[in-house]
Design goal:
This is FAD-dependent oxidoreductase. The protein is α/β, with parallel strands linked by helices. The protein is about 20% helix and about 20% strand. The longest helix has 21 residues, at about 260-280. The relative contact order is 0.15.
Length: about 375
């Protein structure tokens, strides 16, 4: 008996195309990069593995887009450029913050650029590289549009990895790190004494609404018993709260948030539903007429691979608001650390450390070194 392998690439063929730039990842970084490249006259493909743009800010995950204002902490800080353009237009169209209107705006802005070929629902799973005298160069990426059973080979002069997980750089052999460096390496006061694999975890959010009549809720068996944890005494829970008010529903900081994504999704939904069950059925809230309107099905990841470039942005850079000769952007969200917490019965939650300062990332921090990956460590 013979065994043969049949791949989609072999059955349907591969569509070939060449661009000036290929941007992988359609979150806000990828959207802005694609629009900027198109407005500079370049022809490009924007490849995103979800069917809506926006990444963590999309209607699939619903993380608020706050930017440099940091919820009003910096009264005179505003985005300019493309992100500022998106903010202003969204404020005009979408004062109530409807996440679907935000999806629509991002799609509209991308489709308005004739130089962009948009490939949604398309996952990059191959990278072709060439090693020469000047180092390693990415030649092309391979991608699959699963819902349409289409396969692509996309060549380009330049590639932008805005995937969030560092997929392209990882496959190309770029050097990266995960976890936390030791205090001794960069002299960061908030760093641990010894390096470790701890990261910020993933989160699933939920929204509720008033149905105008009593609504029963029966929690599934996998919902976390929130009353048996420290959550009711350590976190803000309210029937009026929605979305990012529940940022602390976070798991996975002690695991691989990509490899364990499927299991984390079930656990995070169980945590979110446990909070909702506590609101509905603990008797501590006026919640009889409330119903669950939406609960995320895609975990929002906070971090994964960090590519090692010519400059490593450190705690000191951020807190000192260090200026760099090659600064390419700025941000205003806090140095927001909340290492892994635990939602199991009897466990506590992680502390949160804030440092509210503007930061100025340089281009040198965004260009990975062309070396083989080594995981955590120098």
């Amino acid at each position: 008996m013979s065994v043969r392998k049949h791949a989609l690439r072999d059955q349907v063929g591969v569509e070939h195309d060449r661009y000036d730039v290929v941007v992988v990842g359609g979150g806000l970084a990828g959207v802005c990069a694609a629009i900027a490249a198109a407005r500079a006259g370049l022809r490009l493909a924007l490849v995103h593995n979800r069917t809506v743009l926006g990444g963590n800010s999309s209607s699939e995950i619903r993380v608020w887009v706050c930017g440099a204002t940091s919820h009003g902490e910096h009264h005179y800080a505003r985005e300019t450029g493309i992100m500022g353009e998106l903010f202003v237009e969204n404020q005009y169209r979408n004062r109530d913050g409807n996440p679907y209107y935000w999806d629509q705006l991002l799609l509209e802005k991308v489709l308005a650029e004739p130089g962009i070929r948009l490939l949604l629902g398309t996952h990059v799973d191959e990278v072709e590289v060439e090693d020469g005298d000047q180092g390693r160069t990415i030649v092309a990426v391979g991608a699959v549009m699963a819902g349409s059973e289409r396969v692509f080979r996309l060549e380009a002069e330049q590639f932008v990895d805005a995937s969030g997980d560092g997929t392209v750089g990882f496959l190309a052999g770029a050097r990266y790190r995960t976890g936390r460096e030791s205090h001794a390496e960069y002299g960061e006061k908030l760093a641990p004494v010894e390096p470790d694999d701890e990261t910020l975890g993933s989160t699933i959010l939920f929204y509720v609404r008033d149905a105008g009549h009593p609504v029963r809720y029966v929690a599934p068996p996998w919902a976390v018993d929130i009353a048996s944890t420290s959550v009711p005494t350590t976190r803000y829970i309210s029937p009026a709260a929605n979305g990012c008010a529940y940022w602390w529903i976070e798991l996975g900081g002690d695991r691989d948030v990509v490899h364990d994504d499927d299991q984390l999704r079930l656990e995070l939904q169980g945590a979110a539903l446990g909070v909702w069950d506590y609101i509905k059925n603990s008797g501590r809230f006026d919640a009889d007429d409330l119903t669950l309107e939406w609960v995320g099905s895609v975990p929002g990841r906070r971090e994964y691979r960090r590519f090692v470039g010519d400059h490593t942005l450190t705690e000191q850079d951020i807190l000192a608001q260090a200026q760099h000769s090659d600064t390419v952007a700025f941000g205003g969200w806090s140095l927001d650390l909340h290492p892994r917490g635990d939602l199991r019965p009897g466990a506590g939650l992680a502390p949160r450390v804030l440092g509210r300062d503007l930061r100025h990332p340089p281009a040198g921090a965004l260009r990975p070194r062309p070396r083989e990956p080594v995981g955590r460590g120098p």
